[in-house]
Amino acid sequence: MSGSTPLSASTRSLPATKSMRRLGQPMAIVSAKTADDVSALHFLNAVFHGPSPGEFKAALEDPYYESRDRLLIKGGRQIYGHVQITRRAIRFGHALIPAAGLRWLATAPEIRGRGFGAILLRRAERLMVERGAAVGLLSTTQPAFFRRAGWIDCGDRNRWVAGVWQILAVLAQTDDYPKIRRPLDIRPVRRMEILDLARIYRLNTDGTYGPLERSETYWHWLVSRRAYDEILVAIDWGKHRSRASSPPEIVGYAALKAGQVLELMTAPGHPKSGVQLLCRACGEAIEQGIDTLGIHLAEGHPLGSMLQRAGAAVSVGHPRHCEVLMAKLLSPDRMLQRLSVELLDRARREGLGLPLELGFAVGNRKYQLALAPAPRGLDHDKGRAPTAASVGGGSVRRSHLRLDGTAFSQLLLGAIAGGAGASAGVEGSTKLARQTAAALFPGHLLWRPPLDDLPVGARA
Length: 460
What we know:
Elements: H1 17-20, E1 28-31, H2 37-48, H3 53-60, E2 70-75, E3 78-92, E4 95-107, H4 116-130, E5 135-140, H5 143-147, E6 152-153, E7 159-163, H6 164-172, E8 185-188, H7 194-205, E9 209-212, H8 216-225, E10 230-236, E11 249-257, E12 260-266, H9 271-287, E13 292-296, H10 303-309, E14 313-315, E15 324-329, H11 332-338, H12 340-349, E16 356-362, E17 365-373, E18 387-393, E19 400-403, H13 405-413, E20 427-428, H14 431-440
Parallel strand pairs: 4-5, 12-13, 16-19
Antiparallel strand pairs: 1-2, 2-3, 3-4, 3-9, 5-15, 6-15, 7-13, 7-14, 8-10, 10-11, 11-12, 16-17, 17-18, 19-20
Helix pairs in contact: 6-9, 7-8
């Protein structure tokens, strides 16, 4: 689907038209059309020396992509600027938050330094909101530019780095390996097993903060784009090794790329599958002449303690070109509404009385959050009690927080170290407001494995 949108109508010239007259033609931000794909790829290669044709093709095949998700600065047929948004959703505890990714923001050398990058970013943010996103996500090597636009550093990759032989030496001292009574079959995944990967991924990410939601369609696209070298699965044939006796059970998987374990997930009750997948990853690295392995694991993963014994260190940030993960709160109303179930769970765990209210005075904007158990008779969502949540604007009541926009983003995204109660940038009107904020908005690490973001053909 292509065409103009209200925020990028081709008839609307850019504010800095006077400086652009030196180029001999007016400029405008427009939504891309399918016919712009080849020109867009040539422009990006001239600016970034990438993406590869394979990565660009994979982006076009994204199941949620539409041509109008790409914005261009154009003068006549010439492209002078580019940005693309991707439509996603992220896990946030028990909530699912609509999000939008931002990639390939660039301007041509002849128009740099005149604010066009910032203008293009603001238009992209408005487009994200129009597409229904509450949060924007990106990774960048230029974080200062995005911080000036209100984006915050948010999340980590949690990548362990250890020597292959040290890992194997530690495993040899445990009961898990090599003395495994019933070793699993480890082999490359087959197309028919993608739904098993989706099942294990969901079991591992439900209730966590930061991983992207992956639908069945998205999983098929993710596997097809091949930003990895191989995906291995661990198969448990049960007590009987006869393949005719019962269908096998996939109890874990690992995505590998050039000495990296991009993602390692195991089914509940099968911790040894992670050990055996890691052993196989070590073997693959040895065969390739690689003596150091990078392993991406969620915080608190059972293999973390074993890696510590192997002398592994945690590498902070994205391993590729020191990229920084960043986020921006695009729609506070939408974010608070989607968080209502998660906030109600937190209130109950902390023993807060319901109903409760908390206001937010953010500069000239005001928001009022009200939480209460839903009336009886409403359907429960996956076994959790529903909640009646409302988000109002225009005024706050006696119990509220006063904070700036950056602190508000950090608060709702959990990016304040130690939570709301530990932040000097969050001022509570009453003791009750401070206590409520500390209970509802604890700090937590946003974590996202790199498999979703690693470009096709790039090294991990």
